Amino acid sequence: MPKILIIDDEEIIRKRLKKLLELDGFDVFTAKDGFYGIEIFKKEKPEIICVDIKMPGKDGIEVLREIKSLDEDAEVILITGHGGVDSAIEAMRKGAFGYLQKPIDYNMLYIDINRAIERKYLKIKLKEYVNNLENLVEDRTKELKLANEQLSKSNINLQREHEIGEEVFKNIRKANFFETPNMRYLLSPMSLFNGDILASKRSPSGIHNFMLGDFTGHGLAAAIGAIPALDIFYDLTLQSFSISEIISNINKKLKLILPTGIFLAACLIELDATNGIVKIWNGGIPNILILSNDGKIKYKIPSKHTPIGIIDNLELDLIIIKLEIFDRIYVYSDGLIESKNNQEEMFGEKRLENSLIDTNIDDGFNNIINCLNEFTKGKTQTDDITLLEIICDPMPYKDMKDYKHDFNKLDFRVNMNMSMILSWNILPKIDPSPLINKILSEIPGLNENKANILTVFSELYNNALDHGILKLDSSLKSTPEGFMQFYELREKYLSSLEEGMININLQHISLEKGGQLTITVEDSGQGFDSRVLKKECPENEAFYGRGIPLISSLCQSFSYLGRGNIAKAVYVWE
Asked: Mind listing the pLDDT tens digit for each residue in 462-505?
């Protein structure tokens, strides 16, 4: 009968788990703190230990470390009710078998316990086999000789498979990686397979998404999750999904397929260079640095989220920042700052920052690499290193197209009229842009123009939502601080919405040499005097008010109807 030790300072949890586990046939011991738990462990030698991370006196990490020093084969499952992102990461790296959050799902605990018991018994069998191996050497000489020959052949095949695998990873990156003059990057793996991943892709709406990730460990085991993560990133970016939705989908996939102990520390960035807006999510990556165009550090954005692939429900709130033209964003894996010199000193964040501060802004990327190479001279690389520099420069995005077709072979004679109504209870949950993107992708001609069309649609829809429904004042965005306050209020108002609706209508008619798409967005708000807006729009240099001139520059005509709550844009293409 397997022995289980429960260490938790909450009596109700100890009693509940003891009762349930005993019903399932386990011999269960309990301890109210880490000190008493260690004593029971020494006396009873349980196979599995379930310990709470946050306890007075001796916490779960200390208990894990001490138990592993007493018996390296003991299997420890960590439990916490406090999120414990940093503790969870440290625990997994220190050899914890699993990690569960309170309230505890007993079915998940039961599965983890049985898997841990199975692994422990396999370790015991392996040790027994190793101990008896010397007695079998003489009898197995011929078998070993044959095995060595087979191993030699297998190594040749394995090397070939590694080369094929590496070629596949390279092709995936090359096929989708979207390089522009406003980004520079360094990818330096320490082995054949890279445990770091770097992805870049522009959506049809003109938003440029970036992902820098670092799987636990390195080599093939670390790289195994790269294919699904990159596939989801590229696919959803091309469908104009937000980075929040991309993160959620990658997390679900990796949580499903990755073995315990392997997860993805990652940063995802959504850059609207045209409007100077960046949205950032950081889960386990070192501080992200944002530098002004005069070489000063404006922001340090630390990790505030659990890495991808550990828990089911990640927090997806984003940091939203207003950038000035030529501001730079630096993202890097921990392999960079943890690189060591011959004296075993780490490069560290301070040296990284010093290589950027008060230098020519155009030299920042190269300065980091030069300083790192000088620091680690003669020292073997011990981890994958990735560095990404992003420049807030809208120019590289102008006139770019992801799709090219032979117009002479396409039939543009498509007439369409589509409407949808989004009510108050669905507005916080849905972004219609991916659906619009899908419709435009299926229609020749519109597919070629969908970057401009999605830009127009996004401006109209966001204006209807922000000002018509949520009644937010754009003047809040007149300063960088107000800009961030605007988006905080937006999330707050959206989550408590109790009335309102937005009506969207797309009407396309074919013309002799192309087509005409009319986009109408109507909100149920009180509207406004559009004559005042027309007087205020020209030569607006603030952080807001640029959407209307942008729409007007892309469309044949643009107007407000009704009481100012209906926006109508006519886009003509040839």
From this structure: 889 999 999 988 787 777 777 778 888 888 888 899 899 999 99
**CA separation for the pair 421, 407 (Å, rounded):** 34
Count helices and strands (H / E) in the chain.
17, 20
- Residue 207, by phi and psi: left (phi above 0), alpha (psi -120 to 50) or beta? beta
pTM of the model: 0.57
DSSP character string of 216-271 = SS-SHHHHTTHHHHHHHHHHHHHTT--HHHHHHHHHHHHHHHSPTT--EEEEEEEE
CB atoms under 10 Å from CB of 47, counted, come to 20
As given in the structure block, the two tokens for residue 371 are 């300083």
Which residue in 357, 355, 361, 362 sits closest to 296, CA to CA? Answer: 357
Please name the residues in contact with 130: beta carbons below 8 A apart, sequence gap of 6 or more.
Answer: none
User: How confident is the model over 75-96, as pLDDT tens digits?
Assistant: 999 888 765 566 667 777 778 8
Q: What is the pLDDT of residues 220-244, one digit of tens each?
A: 656 678 888 988 999 898 888 889 8
Q: Which residues contact 107 (CB under 8 A, 6 or more apart)?
A: none
Encoded amino acid at 110, one letter:
Y
- Single-letter code of the amino acid located at 16: R
Cα–Cα nearest to 281, from 311, 308, 309 = 308
